Input
Amino acid sequence: MSNPTNTENVSTLETAMQLMIQTFHKYSGDEGDKYTLSRAELKVMLSAELGNYLGNAQDKEAVDKVMGDLDANNDGEVDFTEFVILVGALTVACNDFFLEYNDKGEKK
Output
């Protein structure tokens, strides 16, 4: 595997992967385990990074629901794999929305 921090000749998809890794670790080190997101770290990350897609991440019930849905191993924290599942699911939902929108002929 080549050096992931080398920005020369980096593809769009490689850049997206690097940004996902950097974004996760931007929030994961604030409290507790530096390789997981606590409930508080998740709330901050959802508000700052996914507010346009998830709506009001300040809502405690919404954050609790996302945490419950993501925390597959029920350890009270979201690890990188669980984070990637969230981003993947949101990406699929956005793609489905735009496909449906385009199929209606409203905008191409």
